[in-house]
UniProtKB/TrEMBL annotation:
It comes from the Bacteria. GO terms for cellular component: cytoplasm. The keyword Translocase does not apply. One of its GO terms (molecular function) is peptidase activity. GO terms for biological process: proteolysis. Keywords: Hydrolase, Protease. This is Putative intracellular protease/amidase. InterPro entries: Class_I_gatase-like (IPR029062), DJ-1/PfpI (IPR002818), Prot/Nucl_acid_deglycase (IPR050325). Residues 3-170 form the DJ-1/PfpI domain. Pfam families: DJ-1_PfpI (PF01965).
């Protein structure tokens, strides 16, 4: 079974990765369930922005890039405060090894600070949001879309959790375009006609 490492930290933005985590873990629309492993800087519990208490399964030190198939990074107040350095470094290791990294909202700022967006197409909350990040030199590669995939990097803004999930599932080749379009139809556009395609 393939493994997705999901980084967890204080004030993690629950809603940003909820769709993706569910689809990976259950495989309910893809037919391919994954193992989802939560990763903390320590094994101490963290509390998400929505008040959910999460006890990490492993620490960053325990993560084997070779054993992973995806790293997921959600937004949080910590990224905006300049934190998350250890997770950005982990993302760099995954990308260097050719393993996909999916970052949404504030996590994109952390990757920007680490220089990981400078040479890759990406998106975020807004270009200006990243331009306020110290060291960001990737403005020319910013794409104003809901979600952007460039090789092993998938990025999205905070208003696009469904498009984020769709983009990751597409990058991982877990569903074809017809099913992915139906997925967005159901969960973003509330289109009842898409449901039959999604579950068919």
């Amino acid at each position: 079974m393939r493994t997705a490492y999901v980084a967890v930290y204080e004030t993690l933005a629950d809603w940003e990765i909820g769709h993706l985590a569910v689809e990976l873990r259950t495989g309910r629309f893809t037919g391919t369930p994954w193992t989802v492993v939560t990763v903390g800087e320590s094994l101490e519990p963290v509390v998400t922005m929505g008040g959910m208490r999460i006890v990490p399964d492993v620490t960053i030190a325990d993560v084997s890039v070779e054993a992973g198939d995806l790293l997921v990074l959600a937004g949080s107040a910590e990224w905006d405060a300049g934190g998350g350095v250890a997770f950005a470094e982990l993302a760099g290791r995954f990308l260097a090894a050719g393993v996909p990294v999916a970052a949404i909202c504030g996590a994109t700022a952390g990757l920007a600070r680490a220089g990981l967006l400078d040479d890759r197409k990406h998106t975020s909350a807004a270009k200006e949001y990243l331009q306020a990040t110290t060291g960001y030199q990737g403005s020319d590669n910013y794409v104003d879309e809901r979600a952007v995939v460039d090789g092993d990097l998938i990025t999205a803004g905070p208003d696009s959790p469904v498009q984020f999930a769709r983009a990751v599932l597409d990058r991982l080749q877990l569903a074809d375009e017809k099913k992915l379009e139906a997925y967005e139809g159901v969960f973003h556009r509330a289109d009842p006609a898409s449901y039959g395609v999604l579950v068919g």
